[in-house]
Amino acid sequence: MAFDSYRNTLSFDVPDTDTVYFSGLPTDITEEEVIKFFSQLGTIKLNKKNRPPTPKVWLYKDKSTGALKGDGTIAFDDPFAAGSAVSWFNDTDFRPGHKMSVSLAQRKGQEAGGYGGGGRGGFGGGGR
C-alpha cells in the first residue's frame, strides 16, 4: 500500500498470485476445514475443469506413505484475498498448538529473483 500524492489517493499493489501456500497444520486436517477457514477472507476459486467444479485446494501428502504433511495451497477468486490471507493468518494458530505459516505461493521452479535461465543453456551465447 502506498500514498499517491499526485492523485491524493491510496494505491494498493496487486499480488501477482491468487494462491497461498500454508504449512504447520495438523496432519488430520480435512479439505473442508481448510476451505471454511480461508473462506473467511474471500471466495475460494473453483477448478472448472472438474465436473462438478471443485475448490482449488491441494493438501500435500508424503509420497511414500500417502499421509498428509500439514501443508498445501489454496486459490482465491481475488488476488487481494490471497494477500489478506498472508497478513491475517501468517504466524497464527489454526488449532491450539498448531501455529501455521502462510505466504503467497510461487510456481514450482520460480525463484524470488524473477525470470531467467540459470545454469547452462538459456538464451543466445556460443558461436561467432
From TrEMBL:
<dbReference type="InterPro" id="IPR035979">
    <property type="entry name" value="RBD_domain_sf"/>
</dbReference>
<dbReference type="InterPro" id="IPR012677">
    <property type="entry name" value="Nucleotide-bd_a/b_plait_sf"/>
</dbReference>
<keyword id="KW-0694">RNA-binding</keyword>
<feature type="compositionally biased region" description="Gly residues">
    <location>
        <begin position="111"/>
        <end position="128"/>
    </location>
</feature>
<dbReference type="InterPro" id="IPR000504">
    <property type="entry name" value="RRM_dom"/>
</dbReference>
<dbReference type="InterPro" id="IPR034870">
    <property type="entry name" value="TET_fam"/>
</dbReference>
<feature type="region of interest" description="Disordered">
    <location>
        <begin position="107"/>
        <end position="128"/>
    </location>
</feature>
<dbReference type="GO" id="GO:0003723">
    <property type="term" value="F:RNA binding"/>
</dbReference>
<feature type="domain" description="RRM">
    <location>
        <begin position="18"/>
        <end position="107"/>
    </location>
</feature>
<protein>
    <recommendedName>
        <fullName>RRM domain-containing protein</fullName>
    </recommendedName>
</protein>
<dbReference type="Pfam" id="PF00076">
    <property type="entry name" value="RRM_1"/>
</dbReference>
<dbReference type="GO" id="GO:0006355">
    <property type="term" value="P:regulation of DNA-templated transcription"/>
</dbReference>
<keyword id="KW-0539">Nucleus</keyword>
<dbReference type="GO" id="GO:0005634">
    <property type="term" value="C:nucleus"/>
</dbReference>
